[in-house]
Amino acid sequence: xPPTPPEDESMSRVSLRLPETLKVRVEEAAAAEGMSxxxxxxxxxxxxxxxxxxxxxxxxxxxxxxxVR
Length: 69
Prior knowledge:
Blueprint: H1 20-32, H2 37-49, H3 51-59
Helix pairs in contact: 1-2, 2-3
C-alpha cells in the first residue's frame, strides 16, 4: 500500500490515457496484490521516482530467514 500523504498535502487529479491492453494488465496486477488501480499506480510511480526509499517498503513481509545450503 502506498504511504499516506501528509495531512497538509492535497491530492491532485491526473487524466492518464493507456492502451487498453496496458490498462487490463494494470488492473490485473493491482487485483493480484489486493490493491486499487489508483494505489497500485501511486506505488509504481513512487518506486520509479524514489527507488531507494520504496524498495524497503515493497520487500516488507517478503524476507526469508533461516539457513541455506
